[in-house]
Amino acid sequence: MRHLQSVSLSLALLSLISTSIAAAEPAVEQHVLIYGEDGKFGGWPANHGMWMWGDEVLVGLSTGIHKNLGKERHNIDREKPEHHVLARSLDGGVTWKLEHPQDNGMLVNFGGMRHGTTDPKHTEPNPMPITEPIDFTHPDFCMTMRFQTINDGNSRLYYSYDRGHNWKGPFIVPSFGQPGIMARSDYIVNDKHDCHVFLTCSKKNKQEGRVFCGRTTDGGVNWEFLSFVGPEPNGFSIMPSTVRLSPEHLLMTTRRREGPGDEKHRWIDTWESHDNGESWESLGNAVQDVGEGNPPSMIQLQDGRICITYGDRKAPFEMAAKFSSDEGKSWSKPFILLTDTGGRDLGYPRTLQREDGKIITTYYYTPKDSPYRRVNATIWDPGTP
User: Fold this and answer.
1) Please, which residues have CB within 8 angstroms of residue 276's CB and are 6 or more apart in sequence?
2) Considering only CA atoms, which of 318, 364, 338 is closest in space to residue 66?
3) Measured at the alpha carbon of residue 197, what is the angle toward residues 81 and 106, in degrees to the nearest 5?
4) Domain range summary for the chain, segments of one domain joined by +
5) What's the CATH code, domain 30-381?
6) Which of 65, 69, 91, 112 is the residue whose CA sits 20 to 30 A from 288?
7) 57-86, pLDDT tens digit by residue?
8) E strand or H helix at 297, and its extent?
9) Are the CB atoms for 290 and 312 separated by under 8 Å?
10) What is the pTM for the complete model shown?
């Protein structure tokens, strides 16, 4: 009888432990300021890229001069230079130091111009074709692909073999047979010279935009157009974020917008490919409503779940995350990373998971106590499935 009681107690204890593990909820650990200065504007990590090597983290962002253009606008002075800079952390995102790639003589503008602004003190050569194959598997490799302006259709590629201290480029991003390419960094390395890229191109009417998949198998010397992701939208489908789930299975989320004027609907949708990017099927929406619109940043967690982070540009103006345990077919309720901020100008995140399981999400936002946009990192625990 005592033996049976002991077994029953042991089973009950194991059940309690299992329930406790299963019930572990996500939790924010700390918010860290990456960039924020009075009189200045900081923003848009999603436009640049984010990379990690152990405890070393690198993220790109834009800085500029603040100008009060109202609550509905980006408060950056377009008549003044916009600088494309890097922020580096050597302790897993706890502290950051700004770097200015244009000062090293290798990469002048780190992605060229955005909306026609750049620093007149710096110029860079015209982009060239890639003739020396890129080694995508180099241990210190990172790559960024950037557009110049929304409507000119020109994009540039830069890469580094030393964790972003020095960059090679600019190189031409090919047209892939499309009217124009508005590139941001979304790529998956397959092998030494093999890489998928997921980009936004102009629609047939040369307006923004639709997502497509491309690939190189010779280190970027030649590129192949693989497929459009879904039919051409009336509004736009832009800013993809993609993960590989298996040798043939890809999962993607994109930023969507449809509808006229103030009736526009803005959401984040989900697509999958079971033939390595040759074709795509819709899985529905990951987020039904993101206010005035925001791009997703998607990763696969160490425990197998999919995680997206995004900015919600409607009151109370939040940074949020969602999880999927069934490869993007369904999504959890939002987990709030930051809430009750000072306005709709926020988001454009980049997210990565540290080796210890904690997550770093970088983004920009409007503080409640200041009109000046800041770039933050939130370090948080994703809990357990």
Assistant:
1) 196, 247, 248, 250
2) 364
3) 40
4) 30-381
5) 2.120.10.10
6) 69
7) 999 999 999 999 987 789 999 888 888 899
8) strand 297-300
9) yes
10) 0.91
